[in-house]
Specification:
- By secondary structure, the protein is of the alpha/beta class.
- The chain has three domains: about 270 residues, Rossmann fold, CATH 3.40.50.1820; about 100 residues, no CATH class; about 100 residues, no CATH class.
- Helices cover about 50% and strands about 10% of the residues.
- It is built from 16 helices and ten strands.
- Strands 2-3-4-1-5-6-8-10 form an eight-stranded mixed beta sheet, with helices on both faces.
- Helix 2 packs antiparallel against helix 3 and helix 6 crosses helix 7.
- The protein is globular and about 80 Å long.
Length: about 575
């Protein structure tokens, strides 16, 4: 490992009385039922863990430590006496203060009808996104980018990405049809005048499904009082954080609907003092596109963000919430032209210098898990594209000046390796899915089980006619009838499975086996590969930063310059 260069600089924790730079980071969560502190841990924990690992390697000793932490997990808003969750990270020359702006318990949830309408719009927007992604991947497969300037992986992995996009898009389209077909009997059941049954169907089944599918909720755009209260919650948390840290500048890290809330707070004239002190707005998987899609006529959603605030937006290629880069063009301006991001974002000062005149926010597309179902929540496990960038943005005014930021070739190779690694997992996932589909549906479609009634109960089917699946059916029959009363719950589950229609029952049984095989390979092979690759990328990044630090210290003539260093 490369050792630290001498003499010591401000990066060296052994330097006498180092001047600590303070950084205030406000984390704003998205829609959901998360408890207080959940999002601080969701975003802060992987970031802090990565920084501590980096610092240990960079200094060849533990050089970062967690300071005072105050967490609370109450599920409701306790009012004016509430204090935001809080944490401190100490680095050799900096102290980072984290706080969470928690507003999940500060609003009422919308009714089911509202969520149903929202989900229709949202799901069809996802399908449009998958079509755009497929076309984009086909284009770059035929017209590859320059490998010396792009992190694009080899052609084989590009082809895997294209196939994965087609498979997921097709699966999502089928899921939409099947899902909404299942809603009809559930909604009929909900009409039965039994309060307990209605609450179970509407509250326990339908509302969580609609909330999860839609990815957003409409309170912030439909209810002015609740929207104002949510903006106030975020502003209060920001002011409390800066006061506690005795820091005059703020960095906002927002996820999902938290991006909508943060932008609303920053453009609210009531909170102009917080906006004036906000130096960076970092948005991940922003819900802005969905909000603009639903309510293009709501003026406050398009109030321009002005001032010296640098806005960087991160979105994953398979994330269904942003479904692409920021796009407010569904709104029409007074002159009839479509609204552009330059109408929504009008920076000044150093932010303008970094973005450039007449330019939209900085746009960063990343690769998370290449999975529509998980990409929205997968940003902060992406060390090569998200975590390292977040650390660099916090530590330095310009992220490229941060000691966390490696040379371009190191970063490019790390991202390319990640994209290949994630593509391999996506290929394995697609293989398992296709194997499940062929195994569970193929025998019926090909006529191998022509003598079996697909809609009759699975228990009535002769195990000998099911081939290998017959062994599982025999096992279920034994579990249903051969277990002692003490294990009655297991017998009940076996009975439920045997009571399913044969077609559905076999699909479920094969699906369980397929899921187990997929998970085993993921656990024993891919996760180890991923951990080793992330460790190698961290090591390469540290060595690159050490080399750049020595070059800065040496100066242009090779003479050591005391105190020269990039910001860590």
């Amino acid at each position: 490992m490369t050792t630290r260069a001498e003499p010591a600089t401000a990066l060296d924790a052994t330097a006498a009385d180092p001047v600590l730079q303070r950084r205030c980071v406000l984390i704003v969560h998205g829609v959901g039922e998360q408890r207080k502190s959940d999002t601080l841990l969701y975003i802060g924990s992987p970031l802090v863990n990565w920084v501590m690992r980096w610092a240990r390697l960079f200094y060849n000793r533990p050089a970062a430590s967690v300071g005072r932490v105050e967490l609370s997990f109450v599920p409701f808003d306790v009012g004016a006496g509430d204090t935001p969750p809080f944490a401190v990270l100490d680095l050799p020359d900096q102290r980072w203060y984290f706080a969470e702006a928690w507003w999940a318990g500060s609003s009422f949830h919308p009714d089911f009808g509202t969520m149903l309408y929202w989900s229709f719009v949202h799901l069809f927007d996802i399908l449009a996104q998958m079509l755009r992604n497929t076309a984009e991947r086909a284009w770059y497969l035929i017209h590859p980018r320059d490998p010396d300037t792009s992190s694009q992986p080899a052609r084989f992995w590009q082809l895997v990405d294209l196939i994965n996009c087609v498979v997921l898009g097709t699966g999502y389209a089928v899921g939409v049809v099947v899902g909404y077909a299942l809603l009809i009997p559930l909604m009929l059941v909900a009409q039965v005048p039994i309060e307990a049954l209605q609450k179970f169907v509407l509250v326990k089944l339908l509302q969580p499904i609609m909330t999860a599918d839609a990815g957003e909720f409409r309170i912030f755009i439909d209810d002015e009082l609740q929207a104002a209260n949510i903006r106030r919650r975020v502003a209060d948390a920001a002011q409390a954080l800066m006061q506690h840290a005795e820091c005059d500048e703020l960095i906002i890290v927002a996820h999902s609907e938290g991006c909508v809330v943060s932008l609303g707070m920053l453009t609210d004239p009531i909170f102009v003092d917080v906006a004036r002190r906000t130096r960076k707005l970092l948005t991940f998987g922003a819900g802005l596109n969905k909000t603009w899609l639903i309510k293009p006529t709501l003026d406050r959603l398009f109030a321009p963000l002005t001032g010296d605030t640098l806005w960087t937006d991160f979105w994953a290629s398979y994330d269904p919430v942003p479904a692409g880069p920021l796009d407010p063009t569904r709104r029409k301006l007074a002159n009839g032209a479509a609204c552009q991001m330059t109408d929504v974002y009008q920076p000044s000062g150093d932010a303008l210098a970094q973005v450039g005149p007449g330019q939209p926010p900085i746009n960063e597309q990343v690769t998370n898990g290449m999975n529509v179902m998980t990409d929205h929540g997968g940003y902060f496990t992406n060390e090569e594209q998200v975590v390292i960038r977040l650390a660099a943005e916090i530590s330095a005014e310009r992220h490229t000046d941060s000691a966390f930021w490696p040379a371009n070739d190191v970063l490019r190779e790390g991202i390319r390796a990640r994209r290949q690694r994630v593509s391999a997992l996506a290929l394995w996932r697609d293989v398992i899915f296709l194997a499940w589909a062929l195994t569970s549906l193929g025998p019926w479609l090909l006529g191998w089980l022509a003598s079996v009634n697909p809609w009759g109960p699975l228990s009535a089917v002769s195990p000998s006619s099911l081939g290998p699946a017959g062994v599982v059916v025999e096992a279920l029959k034994f579990l249903q009838t051969g277990l002692p009363d003490l294990l009655a719950p297991i017998s009940g589950i076996a009975g439920v499975l045997l009571g399913l229609p044969a077609l559905l029952g076999i699909a479920v049984l094969v699906g369980v086996v397929a899921w187990a095989i997929y998970s085993l390979v993921d656990w024993q092979w891919w996760q180890r590969w991923d951990a080793a690759a992330r460790g190698a990328f961290l090591q390469a990044s540290v060595e690159s930063s050490q080399a750049q630090r020595r070059a800065v210290q040496a100066g242009p003539d090779g003479v050591t310059v005391q105190g020269s260093s990039r910001t860590a």
